[in-house]
Amino acid sequence: MVDKNTDFFKIVDNFIKTTQIPSIPIIESRLDFIPKITIAIPTYKRPDLLKEAIDSAINQIEYTDYDIMVVDNDPTRNCNTEQLVSSYKEKRLSYYKNTKNIGMVENWNRLFVLAKGEWVVMLHDDDLLFSNFLKETTKILTEKEDIGILKPFNFICKTIPTNNFINNSQSKNIHLKRIYDISFYYGNILGVPSGIIFKRKQIELLGGFNNDYYPTSDYCFFALFSKYYKIYTLNRYLSIYRIAQNESLNIKTLHAFVYNDYFLIQENLKSYKIPVFFIKNYLRHRTENQAQAMSQIWNSNFNYNMKDLGITPIPKILGLIFHIIIRSFMYYAILIKRISFFKSILHFPRGIRSIDK
Fold first, then answer.
1. DSSP output for 322-352
2. Residue 67 neighbours by CB under 8 Å, 6+ apart
3. Contacts of residue 125, Cβ cutoff 8 Å, sequence gap at least 6
4. Parallel, antiparallel or unpaired: strands 66-72 and 176-179
5. Cis (ω within 30 of 0) for the bond into 75?
6. Strand 196-199 versus strand 119-122 pairing type
7. Model confidence over 145-165: pLDDT tens digits?
C-alpha cells in the first residue's frame, strides 16, 4: 500500500474504518470516578501471556487514578481469554470483545475509542509494566504539561530480567529528551508502541494508526504526530518488551518494513528541502545497513534485494560521507526549531516558564 507517492503526513480518519463493527462490553469497571489514565491492552488468543500483562497493570504502586481495559480481537464467546479475564475480581478491570476480528492495527485504534482516561498507556498482551510505571510517568506528565507522547525505555528481551538487574541498569539522573520530526530521518527511534503513554485527544485528532502502512503503522504515526505535538523519551526502564513472543518478524514483514521505511524517510527529508541527490545517496547507504541489521538481529534468513526499491548499494566510505551530511542537516533543523522556541518564551506573560529539552 506504500509507494513513492504515499503522503505519510496527511491526516486520515482511521477510526471511521471500523465504526460499523462494535465492541461488546463483557465486563465493565466498577470505579466511582473517571480515571485520569487507562492502561489499555489489545489481545488475541494469548491468555497465558495476557495474564502476566494484566497482573503487571494491577500491581502498580503509589498511584491509583487509573483503570485497566482489555480489548479482545477474537469474537469467539467463552474462549480461554474471556474465562481468564472473568476470573479477576478487580474493580479497575474492563473487558471488551470485538464482534469481528478487525486486525491488529485497527484494534490499537479501538483502544482510544473505548478508553475512559485522558491518557492511555498501550500495553501489548505479551509485555509487562514495571510496578512503578505510573508512579514515575505521572510525575513527568504533571511537571511538563505539553507532552503528547511519553516513551520510557523498555527492556527488549527474551526472558524477564531479575529485579536486581533492573535496579542496577537504571540511570541515576532522570531526564527527558524531545523527539523532533526531523529525528525520524534515522528510523523508528521510539520503537514499539508498548509501554508508552499517549494523550488520547491528540491521537483522535490525528486519526490514529493507519493500517495501510503496516508493518510500519506505529513508526509512521509517530513521525506524523511529531509534526503536530510533542514527543519525549524518558531514560527510565519502566516496561518489558518480549521479542521471543513477537510473531511479526517473518521474512515478508521485514521486507515490507524496509520498503516502507525507505519512502517514509525520503518524504520526511524532502519536507526539509534537503537536495534529492543527498537524500538518494544517504538512503542507498542506510537501506543496506538496515537490511543487514535485520538479518543479524531479527531473522538470519532475511535477505533484502535493494533492486526492489530501484537502488543499488553504495561504497561504504561514500555512504558514511552522505550520512554525515544528512546528520548535519538534521542538527541544523533542530537548532532552528529550538531557537524559534526560545524566542517564543520571551513573549510569555510574567511568571510563565517553559523548558524545551
1. HHHHHHHHHHHHHHHHHHHHHHHHTTSPTT-
2. 29, 31, 35, 37, 38, 39, 92, 93, 94, 116, 117
3. 41, 42, 43, 44, 46, 49, 50, 53, 70
4. unpaired
5. no
6. antiparallel
7. 999 999 999 888 766 665 555
Q: Which residues pair with 310 in a beta bridge?
A: none
Alpha carbon distance 117, 114 (integer Å): 9
Instruction: List, in sequence order, every beta strand (DSSP E) within the chain.
Output: 23-27, 37-43, 66-72, 93-98, 119-122, 128-129, 147-157, 176-179, 196-199, 230-242
pTM of the model: 0.90
Place of cell 491492552: 41
d(CA 115, CA 208) in angstroms, rounded, equals: 14
344 is written with which cell numbers?
517564543
CA distances from 162 to 25, 88, 165, 227, 230 (A): 36, 26, 5, 38, 33
Strands 66-72 and 37-43: parallel
The residues, ordered by sequence, that sit 6+ positions from 170 with a Cβ below 8 Å of its Cβ are 236, 237
- Determine the Cα–Cα distance for residues 28 and 82; give it in Å rounded to an integer: 13
Strands 147-157 and 66-72 come out as: unpaired
Collapsing DSSP to helix, strand or coil, 318 comes out as helix
Burial per residue of 190-218, b for 16 or more beta-carbon CB atoms within 10 angstroms, e otherwise: bbbbbbbbbbbebbeebbbbbbebbbbbb
Q: pLDDT digit string (tens) for 306-331?
A: 988 999 989 999 999 999 999 998 88
Other Cβ atoms closer than 10 A to 314: 21
CA angle 194, 249, 239 (to 5 degrees): 20
pLDDT tens per residue, range 48-78: 999 999 999 999 999 999 999 999 999 999 9
Cα distance between residue 170 and residue 185, in whole Å:
28
How many other CB atoms sit within 10 Å of the CB of residue 106?
A: 22
